[in-house]
């Protein structure tokens, strides 16, 4: 690892400038310029055609839904929408793109000059968006070697299924004045984009699946300097924590270099999950991609009326929605932070509340028992085979006294195992709470007889000792006894 400087010491001597380039994979049914299936997965090289393979004579056609998604993204980010934009060919050696160029937008993007306000630690930070442009993704390379990297690979395999997937690239302008909060703002911005893409319905925005990828640019300049320092670009960072950690690491690494009299190499870098960045390729000289207008595609010219129609479809902004729901649910800032920090839980809790559960109980189950089960199977909360309505029904059974929380966990287990709805699981597993005085009385009498010393304490006025007997009854009845009624029966018998 490189030598690192204390973070606070770096910030005392240097000002960081942040820049973020975010690629968003759209969830359109087909690819950007052809009719191939755009769903993830599948056997390698089975979702391809002459267009996305770049075969001679094939002609691309722009995906109209992708254009619509691009405009909605731009509007949600406060961008102006270009009345006329066009595609270009970005020429570069692409081992995972058979036509050896990427169809993208260059000097005439569809969206430009946006703005986002982020609230971080009680302070608002403005993020200026330079552009949002449309392009296509490349294929996927798999390097066969010990590390999975090209440097020590024996050979590489290429899968073109992803080639041609619609991508939106969202590029910020340089962001200064963040100081020590630079990593926090970087993370908050990515979280904002993730939530926004999901709210718009244009992307699954799952960073671990590559739906949302971030190139993190950071540079340092001496305090008071008017020129920006040389930047590094950490490529394809794919989690919120990694964005924050990569920024903190690079700030400390660059600070150590500059303080020792060295200079920062302008280059791409790779983030290692062990906690550091490593060099990629030099970017000291500007890349010459030899852009030229794509001759096979007509310009994109959305009408003002269509843009306004799309503006009317925008959902409630995620930050505004979170603030509204927090007020409605009565959550503390800490409770709401846990909800926002658990992917997918906000929508699930909202739907569970809508199905009749209280906000506190919905939060308890989704962030507790169900989050634990998702972690055990390495699944997303939203992918668990249980619906918000079913969670609300389990809570309704608890509220009615039919289930205890312990029994409810067994019901969740049954629902997740595919045994049916909550009521069917309760019936098939015999999980309902026993409140019949006959059965409870027999169990209470047996426990009192087995623990006469505890019974004597209760007779002597130490009512709190009843807890031991209640616990024994609950154990004897496999947790299915009505604990409140058990207590009443014990005290009645020992009054």
TrEMBL record:
<keyword id="KW-0436">Ligase</keyword>
<keyword id="KW-0808">Transferase</keyword>
<dbReference type="GO" id="GO:0050567">
    <property type="term" value="F:glutaminyl-tRNA synthase (glutamine-hydrolyzing) activity"/>
</dbReference>
<dbReference type="Pfam" id="PF02934">
    <property type="entry name" value="GatB_N"/>
</dbReference>
<dbReference type="GO" id="GO:0005524">
    <property type="term" value="F:ATP binding"/>
</dbReference>
<feature type="domain" description="Asn/Gln amidotransferase">
    <location>
        <begin position="347"/>
        <end position="494"/>
    </location>
</feature>
<dbReference type="GO" id="GO:0050566">
    <property type="term" value="F:asparaginyl-tRNA synthase (glutamine-hydrolyzing) activity"/>
</dbReference>
<keyword id="KW-0547">Nucleotide-binding</keyword>
<dbReference type="InterPro" id="IPR017958">
    <property type="entry name" value="Gln-tRNA_amidoTrfase_suB_CS"/>
</dbReference>
<dbReference type="GO" id="GO:0016740">
    <property type="term" value="F:transferase activity"/>
</dbReference>
<dbReference type="InterPro" id="IPR003789">
    <property type="entry name" value="Asn/Gln_tRNA_amidoTrase-B-like"/>
</dbReference>
<comment type="subunit">
    <text>Heterotrimer of A, B and C subunits.</text>
</comment>
<comment type="function">
    <text>Allows the formation of correctly charged Asn-tRNA(Asn) or Gln-tRNA(Gln) through the transamidation of misacylated Asp-tRNA(Asn) or Glu-tRNA(Gln) in organisms which lack either or both of asparaginyl-tRNA or glutaminyl-tRNA synthetases. The reaction takes place in the presence of glutamine and ATP through an activated phospho-Asp-tRNA(Asn) or phospho-Glu-tRNA(Gln).</text>
</comment>
<dbReference type="InterPro" id="IPR014746">
    <property type="entry name" value="Gln_synth/guanido_kin_cat_dom"/>
</dbReference>
<protein>
    <recommendedName>
        <fullName>Aspartyl/glutamyl-tRNA(Asn/Gln) amidotransferase subunit B</fullName>
        <ecNumber>6.3.5.-</ecNumber>
    </recommendedName>
</protein>
<dbReference type="InterPro" id="IPR018027">
    <property type="entry name" value="Asn/Gln_amidotransferase"/>
</dbReference>
<keyword id="KW-0067">ATP-binding</keyword>
<dbReference type="InterPro" id="IPR004413">
    <property type="entry name" value="GatB"/>
</dbReference>
<dbReference type="InterPro" id="IPR023168">
    <property type="entry name" value="GatB_Yqey_C_2"/>
</dbReference>
<comment type="similarity">
    <text>Belongs to the GatB/GatE family. GatB subfamily.</text>
</comment>
<dbReference type="InterPro" id="IPR017959">
    <property type="entry name" value="Asn/Gln-tRNA_amidoTrfase_suB/E"/>
</dbReference>
<dbReference type="GO" id="GO:0070681">
    <property type="term" value="P:glutaminyl-tRNAGln biosynthesis via transamidation"/>
</dbReference>
<dbReference type="Pfam" id="PF02637">
    <property type="entry name" value="GatB_Yqey"/>
</dbReference>
<dbReference type="InterPro" id="IPR006075">
    <property type="entry name" value="Asn/Gln-tRNA_Trfase_suB/E_cat"/>
</dbReference>
<dbReference type="GO" id="GO:0006412">
    <property type="term" value="P:translation"/>
</dbReference>
<keyword id="KW-0648">Protein biosynthesis</keyword>
């Amino acid at each position: 690892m490189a030598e690192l400087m204390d973070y606070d010491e770096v910030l005392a001597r240097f000002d960081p400038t942040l820049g973020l380039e975010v690629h968003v994979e759209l969830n359109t049914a087909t690819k950007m310029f052809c009719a191939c299936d755009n769903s993830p997965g599948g056997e390698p090289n089975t979702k391809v055609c002459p267009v996305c393979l770049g075969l001679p004579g094939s002609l691309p056609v722009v995906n109209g839904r992708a254009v619509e998604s691009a405009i909605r993204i731009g509007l949600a980010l406060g961008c102006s929408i270009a009345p006329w934009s066009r595609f270009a060919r970005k020429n570069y050696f692409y081992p995972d793109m058979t036509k050896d160029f990427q169809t993208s937008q260059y000097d005439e993007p569809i969206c430009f000059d946006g703005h986002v306000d982020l609230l971080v630690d009680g302070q608002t930070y403005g993020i200026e968006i330079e552009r949002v442009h449309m392009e296509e993704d490349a294929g996927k390379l798999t390097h066969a070697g010990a590390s999975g990297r090209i440097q020590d690979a024996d050979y590489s395999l290429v899968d073109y299924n992803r080639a041609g997937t619609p991508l939106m690239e969202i590029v910020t302008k340089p962001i200064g004045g963040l100081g020590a909060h630079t990593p926090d703002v970087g993370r908050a911005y990515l979280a904002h984009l993730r939530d926004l893409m999901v709210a718009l319905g244009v992307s699954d925005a799952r960073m671990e699946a590559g739906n949302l990828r971030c190139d993190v640019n950071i540079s340092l300049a001496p305090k008071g300097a008017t020129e920006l320092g040389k930047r590094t670009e950490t490529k394809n960072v794919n989690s919120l924590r990694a964005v924050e950690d990569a920024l903190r690491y690079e700030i400390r690494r660059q600070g150590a270099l500059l303080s020792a009299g060295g200079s920062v190499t302008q280059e791409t870098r790779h983030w290692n999950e062990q906690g550091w960045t490593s060099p990629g390729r030099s970017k000291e000289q500007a890349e010459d991609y030899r852009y030229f207008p794509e001759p096979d595609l007509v310009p994109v010219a959305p009408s003002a009326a269509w843009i306004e129609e799309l503006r009317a479809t925008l959902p409630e902004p995620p930050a505004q929605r979170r603030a509204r729901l927090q007020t409605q649910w009565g959550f503390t800032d800490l409770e709401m932070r846990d909800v926002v920090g658990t992917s997918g839980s906000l929508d699930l809790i909202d739907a569970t509340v809508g199905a009749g559960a209280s906000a506190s109980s919905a939060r308890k189950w989704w962030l507790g028992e169900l989050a634990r089960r998702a972690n055990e199977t390495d699944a997303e909360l939203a992918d668990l085979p249980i619906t918000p309505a079913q969670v609300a029904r389990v809570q309704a059974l608890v509220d009615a006294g039919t289930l205890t929380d312990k029994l409810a966990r067994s019901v969740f287990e049954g629902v997740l195992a595919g045994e049916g709805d909550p009521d069917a699981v309760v019936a098939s597993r015999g999980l309902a709470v026993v409140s019949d005085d006959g059965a409870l009385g027999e169990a209470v009498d047996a426990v009192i007889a087995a623990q006469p010393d505890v019974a004597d304490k209760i007779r002597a006025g130490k009512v709190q000792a009843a807890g031991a007997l209640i616990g024994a009854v609950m154990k004897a009845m496999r947790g299915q006894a009505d604990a409140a009624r058990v207590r009443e029966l014990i005290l009645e018998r020992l009054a």
